[in-house]
């Protein structure tokens, strides 16, 4: 039984890290200072790396003080964000809105691949909501994670979006972030984007030192077990 348990640990270690993350640079497209929003002092003030539900994100900055910034839609707008990443299986985005009325279709995110486009609709109370816990739509819907700030007064919500399997064999050229110009019904903003791609398909071909140690323990346990017979 000892031998079996050690081999099980080895399989878990060897199977770890089956995906890589690629953080998308939004710095050339951000247009709004998040620190000036309702409860803005609760947000990270000068961009940088954050983690939500285990996913790393890079917050961009704007202006001479390098304040944390987002891509904010107001009128009907379309922001095309270069991605140039092959084999994307899913996209993790920090998406909220200014204002918002539950049930309103307020925008969409188009994942433009080299051979097809996948459209992800944004609906208040379903997969997007106001960033501030106030009078506008606060229903979390099916969001995958939350960066809660200021005791819950403010937030950045994680949308984890599975792309069609066909995207694993093509390049994701761009992410088109669109707002429909709905005003107080909801104006979407994007704070950060991280793409998920498969890792090296043969990560266990050359075991890491820690893995070798586990294998050695397993072999030793097997030898001791045989000596006792």
Can you give a write-up of this model?
With 229 residues, the chain is mainly beta. The chain has one domain (19-199): Jelly Rolls (Sandwich). 14% of the residues lie in helices and 43% in strands. The strands form two sheets. Strands 1, 2, 3, 4, 5, 7, 10, 11 and 13 form a nine-stranded antiparallel beta sheet that branches. A four-stranded antiparallel beta sheet has the order 6-12-8-9, with no helix packed on it. The longest helix is centred in the C-terminal third of the chain and has 20 residues, at 209-228. It is globular. 32% of the residues are buried.
Shape call? globular
Helices and strands, in order, run as: HEEEEEEEEEEEEEH
Q: From the alpha-carbon coordinates, what is the Rg to the nearest angstrom?
A: 22 Å
Number of domains: 1
Overview features:
229 residues, mainly beta, Jelly Rolls, nine-stranded antiparallel β-sheet, 13 strands, disordered N terminus
Topology, please?
Layout: H1 2-14, E1 19-23, E2 32-33, E3 48-52, E4 55-62, E5 67-72, E6 76-86, E7 90-98, E8 105-113, E9 117-123, E10 145-149, E11 154-162, E12 171-180, E13 187-198, H2 209-228
Antiparallel strand pairs: 1-13, 2-5, 3-4, 4-5, 5-13, 6-12, 7-11, 7-13, 8-9, 8-12, 10-11
Helix pairs in contact: 1-2
Short summary:
The protein is mostly beta strands and 229 residues long.
